[in-house]
Design brief:
- The chain is of the alpha+beta class.
- A hairpin with a 2-residue loop joins strand 7 and strand 8.
- The protein has 6 helices and 12 strands.
- Helix 2 packs across helix 5.
């Protein structure tokens, strides 16, 4: 794993100098080791195969995990409603119906610029996705989860689902279902992506949960919540130097 840094913000007055931290996967690197060091896969540019970024990510230590009361409330809403099939990516048919559901979900939920078709295809062809989990209702696909799995760890990278179910907490149920499946498989950790801003606080409904501080994994959930709630006070819309030389989707 090759780690590199990219210059970002500067505050000479306070002697604060920011750098984006990235990792480049090399032959022989285990994904579990890359995730363990606080990195997540970067998919913002077609020029960046095998690149990971360091961020405030969250993970579930599975040995001691059990559903919270809020988790159980969500589980009762959906358990038993869907048929689930977990397919290795190499065996999964990426047909137009699948792509259309995924792209429509992101366009309506997050805007057309977030997940254009080229980015979705880049993610699917990145070599990192190991499984696609399909959920069926009345014999029709209603949800998909793109998952990374590497021995002792798993990563819930993206989910897409029928927009008719958006306001019913289906997205949270998909994540809980993925966590309990990873636990049943004997994995040690399950990664949930980043926790930035109020919109990501739903992830703190898991217990126990750990987050990456920049140097270690911490179980201090109160600090995690405080940081997420105050992220808007520290947000700037400028790219670091490395991204200036890449093509964005």
């Amino acid at each position: 794993m090759r780690i590199f840094y990219s210059e970002h913000l500067v505050s000479y007055k306070t002697y604060t100098f920011g750098y984006g931290v990235y990792a480049q996967k090399e032959n022989g690197d285990a994904l579990s080791n890359i995730y363990e060091r606080g990195f997540l896969p970067y998919s913002g540019s077609p020029d960046t195969h095998g690149t990971f970024y360091m961020a405030r990510s969250a993970r579930i230590p599975l040995a001691n995990w059990s559903p919270t009361s809020e988790n159980r409330r969500i589980l009762k809403k959906f358990d038993g409603r869907f048929e689930k099939i977990r397919t290795p990516l190499s065996e999964f048919e990426q047909d137009e119906a699948f792509l259309s559901l995924c792209l429509t979900y992101f366009e309506k939920r997050h805007g057309p610029a977030v997940m254009p078709r080229k980015r979705l295809l880049f993610i699917l062809n990145s070599g990192l996705i190991t499984h696609v989990v399909t959920y069926y209702g009345n014999d029709q696909p209603v949800a998909y989860v793109l998952e990374v799995s590497d021995g002792e760890m798993g990563h819930f990278w993206f989910s897409f689902y029928d927009l008719a179910l958006v306001r019913q907490s289906l997205g949270m149920w998909l994540m809980i279902d993925a966590v309990r499946n990873a636990q049943a498989e004997g994995k040690t950790h399950y990664y949930l992506g980043t926790v930035y801003g109020e919109k990501a606080l739903y992830k703190t409904n898991f217990s126990p949960i750990e987050y990456w501080t920049g140097s270690e994994w911490s179980g201090d959930v109160n600090t995690l919540k405080k940081r997420a709630r105050t992220d808007s006070e520290r947000t700037v819309d400028t790219a670091d130097e490395w991204k200036e030389d890449t093509t964005s989707f």
